[in-house]
Structures are given as structure tokens and as C-alpha cells.
Fold this protein.
Amino acid sequence: MPSYQHLLLEKDPDAHIAKLTLNRPDRRNAMNDQTTDEMTDAIENVEADDSMRVLILTGAGKSFCAGGDLEALRGGSELGTWAADSPEEIRRSFRRAQRLMLGLQRLEKPVIGMINGAAVGAGFDLAAVCDIRIGCPRSRFMVGYVRLGLFPGFGGTWLYTRMLGSLGKAAELLFTGDFMEADEAYRVGFLNQVVPEEELESATLEMARKIGDGPPIAIRLAKMMMYKGLEFDLETAMKMAAAAETITLSSKDHEEGIAAFRESRKPVYEGR
């Protein structure tokens, strides 16, 4: 298991659950170059581990993620590539963000955001790229960039318009930098559940176990097609669905699912 300075990566092979925790509570889990690189490495590690079927993403302490570390920006004490002198060097530095965000979305295993507090700026983007989000009353979301005269460099303009279910709501948050509180996030469908703070971890683990116990091939294909479907017309989506269904109909998992249903027992899927 790799060791990181800014993250904790834990795995439960019996439940097929990996948990990735942003571990900079003194900085409200703010991200710098190292944090971004470590997250990308950890995601690749989970992707390569066939015993893992679902990933939980969360933050240590009272915040989910405060976004980019202000100390890594101009005038800060720990300048990163975002504060480079050359605009071209700054542009190239966002390859880090691209690898991270695309790595999370393209991860074949579902990602559950356990939103334990404020998600601001790039932290909001991280929450938005999760497939499922479970929060508590302390969960709140803010674009943040606009308050610093910045553009959302971690893909927010693409993510918010799709994950908030409303172009108008996305525009409001992008243009004002106002917070969206947990109750509103649940109402618009951004949060799948809002539970008491003391139940957040158990509710997230319950969801993760449901996914971990499910048929991995079918779930991975469903995730891939769900996002690819955002780019396709219906005819193309139906043709891709036929190809994906052919794979699952030919799988051992399908045989096990049918047998378990007929025998009134819980299926045991092996991802074959």
C-alpha cells in the first residue's frame, strides 16, 4: 500500500471498498501540486486493484476540501506552478488537474463522495465529479473562484451544469460565489442523501457495501455508459448499450445472479 504525505488510502478487501481521505485538516484539506499528484497516484492504484470495487472520497477533520491552497498562489509562502511567471507554464500546470479529474470520472469503479463539510472551489469540483454524494447538515458548496477573480480550472463549468440539473443554478453559483447549503443541494439532486453528522460514515459505508456486493462488470459498464451517454444521441447510445449488454449476458456474474434469484439467496459476484 503506498504512503502519502497529504492523503490516507485505506482498503477493505473483504468489502471491496477503498477509502481516500484528504489529510490536511490544518489547511482544511486545501490542495497544492503535491496533493493533486498524490491523489492521481492513489486513484491509479485503486483502478489497478481488482479487489476494489468502489471508492469513498472524503476529507479529514471538519472540511471536505477548501479548494486550492492559497499559500500556493501569488503572494503565498509555498508557491506552486499556479503562481508561475509564464502564462504558458501556468496553462501546462493544469495538466495535473486534468489527470486528476479525468482519472476520477474515468475510474471504472464508482466513486462516493462522503461530504463531511465545506467543499469550496476545486473542492466543489471534486465533489461534483463523484458519482454519488452523501452529506450532512454541515455540507456546503461554493464555487469560490469568482471571489478571487479566477475561472474554475478543475472543470467546474462542465460539471456544475450537468450535476446541478439546472443551467440557471449553475450560473448563479458561478457568477456570485454564494454558498449552496446541504438542504438545497439535496433538493436539486446534487446530494443523494443528507444524514445526521454522526451517521455520515455509516450511511456512506452502507451505500459502498451495496455497490461492493454488486456485479462489478455490469456496474463498471453502467458507469462508463452513463457518462458517455452525455455525448451521444439516442441511436448511438442504444448501439453502445447493446454491446455492453452482450458482455454482461455472457458473464459468469450474470449466471450467478440468475441462479441466486431462482434459489432465493444472496448472489456472490466475482467480476467474471
Summary: The chain has a mean pLDDT of 90. Strands lie at 7-12, 17-22, 54-59, 111-115, 118-120, 132-135, 140-142, 180-181, 193-194.
